[in-house]
Specification:
Structural class: alpha/beta
Order of helices and strands: HHHHEHEHEEHEHHEE
Radius of gyration: 16 Å
CATH architecture: 3-Layer(aba) Sandwich
Number of strands: 7
Shape: globular
Oligomer: single chain
Number of helices: 9
Largest sheet: 7 strands, mixed
Distance between the termini: 28 Å
């Protein structure tokens, strides 16, 4: 997560870096295999992201709501020159720095604890990622505008959509148990956000439980 507009999300994600990392990490063995079987959409998202990013050799990357930095680290391993991850949960940032050191890519990665909307970047980026983030954002337009202002050749983001019964049980888990509001999107809404932000091109595709969006600004 990256913006404090949802305090329930901030509180939740600050408590769960290890559990969240298990969704992506091969090192977690059994839990990784369980999550891969039960959370197909996460792995579709991962594959889509790196297909759309293309060759990352020498690229600059911004990972908004970087979480435990698995996308950031993979970008660095694929040759990105500079990767910046930003997240508002302090424990996620601490975890990200530690795992980047363990993976041998700390020299390519910088992690910032804070709100991306308030942070003033002094550079543009070749690639901007916002994955697993918009689920918790009530007003997505400012984040779209921020991403477009950074002039990425590729912007990749993911969005949940309402599906039955998945969305019902997800609302119970997040709203009632974790006190963390979540939001769903339509394809038309995402396309409208891309147009309003000024992206030169975009595509929105459906996956298991949501949508994947790739967009960009022509250099």
């Amino acid at each position: 997560m990256t913006t404090p507009e949802n305090p329930g999300a901030q509180s939740y994600f600050d408590k769960v870096p290890k559990e969240w990392d298990a969704l992506y990490s091969h090192e977690h063995g059994f839990m990784y295999r369980v999550n891969k079987a039960l959370r197909k959409g996460l792995y579709e998202r991962y594959a889509f992201t790196f297909e759309k990013c293309g060759d990352l050799t020498g690229a600059s990357v911004l990972d908004i709501g970087c979480g435990t930095a698995r996308y950031s680290i993979e970008c660095a391993k694929r040759g990105a020159r500079r990767v910046t991850g930003i997240d508002f949960a302090p424990s996620m940032i601490e975890f990200s720095r530690n795992i980047a050191r363990q993976m041998g890519v700390a020299g390519q990665c910088t992690f910032i604890q804070g709100d991306v909307l308030a942070h003033e970047f002094t550079e543009t980026f070749d690639v901007v990622l916002a994955l697993g983030l918009f689920d918790y954002i009530k007003d997505p337009a400012p984040l779209f505008n921020k991403a477009a202002s950074l002039k990425p050749r590729v912007f990749v983001a993911s969005f949940p959509r309402f599906t039955f019964p998945w969305s019902i049980q997800r609302r119970i888990r997040y709203y009632l148990i974790k006190k963390c509001p979540i939001y769903d999107y339509s394809k038309e809404q995402i396309e409208g956000l891309c147009k309003a932000a000024g992206f030169d091109w975009f595509e929105v595709v459906k996956n298991s439980h949501g949508y994947l969006c790739a967009a960009g600004v022509k250099k």
